[in-house]
Design a protein that fits this description.
Residues 95-118 have a biased composition (Basic and acidic residues). By secondary structure, the chain is mostly helical. It has helices spanning 2-57, 64-120. It is 82% helix and 0% strand. α1 (2-57) packs antiparallel against α2 (64-120). It has one domain (2-118): Orthogonal Bundle (Helix Hairpins), CATH 1.10.287.
Length: 137
Amino acid sequence: MSKRVRDSAGIQSEIDKVTIEINNAGAQVEQANAAVEQARQARNAVSATLRDIAEKLQHPDLSKHERAKLVAKQQLCASDLDQLSKDVDHLRKKEEQLRKKEEQLRKKEEQLRDEKLQEGGASPDGMRRTTLPNLSS
């Protein structure tokens, strides 16, 4: 009998650890999601700047100096946009990995809870079930 209690307590301890890991993974997913959104906003801002520069470059009355400054800025923005796009892709992949990790932990928690129920002989509602003999012979 004491072995069963110890096993159940060990399983519960493992469930508690997995629950903490799930909470940590969930927080990491939220942080990754926020980082993705921030990178997207930065990428969109750079795209808007590029559109603005392209519009300014259309003016025929630009001096060579102004045009050169705009072209240099355009090149920097294009480089920034490329890097931000890569960052967004990387962050999205990281977020997806974290979501998968969280899902795996949830499955592990569910398995442990099932194992605990089987070990403890309790039903999901926490009540012990007994099988009554069939008296209708």
